[in-house]
Amino acid sequence: MLHQKKQLIYYSDLCKTANLRLDMSIPADRGKIGEILGHISRYEHENGRPLISSVVVSRSMEQGDGFFKLAEELGFGNWKKLKNGKMFEYDMINKAHNFWSK
User: Fold this and answer.
1) How many CB atoms lie within 10 A of CB 9?
2) How far is CA 85 from CA 10, 21, 78, 81, 94, in A?
3) What is the Cα Rg of the chain in Å?
4) For 55-102, how does the pLDDT look when each residue is reduced to its tens digit (9 = 90+)?
5) CB-based burial of residue 82 (10 Å sphere; 0-12 exposed, 13-18 middle, 19+ buried)?
6) What is the largest CA-CA distance in the chain?
7) How many whole angstroms separate alpha carbon 94 and alpha carbon 17?
8) pTM
9) Is the pLDDT of residue 15 over 50?
10) Euclidean distance between the first and the last CA atom of the chain, given in angstroms as a whole number
11) In Å, what is the CA distance from 81 to each residue of 1, 42, 65, 86, 89?
């Protein structure tokens, strides 16, 4: 399982694994996966859990802008600073792995 190995998953692999039938080469589909992950992370945050979408990355090993914009919306700080600083994403990845490996 993902949490046991403390891995990240690519957006495209998540779409295949979850049978979402989304193609990450299509901008509208990238928007759809972002929306889905945003709903999940918002729910997780509201229930006191880390942003699980932190473990979903692009092939360049980065979260999309939507991840950081949601983090800003949830009160974590300015999204551009969060993205440029890198510590937020690493911290959230570690929190997600630690929480879900309990």
Assistant:
1) 15
2) 21, 33, 11, 6, 16
3) 13
4) 999 999 989 899 999 999 999 999 999 999 989 999 999 999 999 887
5) buried
6) 36
7) 22
8) 0.86
9) yes
10) 13
11) 32, 20, 11, 9, 11
d(CA 2, CA 93): 12
Distances (CA, A) of 96 to 3, 26, 28, 32, 93: 8, 28, 27, 22, 5
> Long-range contacts of range 70-76, CB-CB < 8 Å, 24 or more positions apart?
70/38, 70/41, 70/42, 74/42, 74/45
- Residue pointed to by tokens 């090993």: 61
Which two tokens mark 42?
Answer: 């918002």
Whether the CB-CB separation of 3 and 101 falls below 8 Å is answered with yes
What's the token pair of residue 46?
A: 């509201």
Q: What is the pLDDT of residues 20-63, one digit of tens each?
A: 999 999 999 999 999 999 999 999 999 999 999 999 999 999 89
Q: Output the CA–CA distances (angstroms, integers) from residue 46 to 14, 19, 31, 56, in the order listed.
A: 23, 26, 22, 19
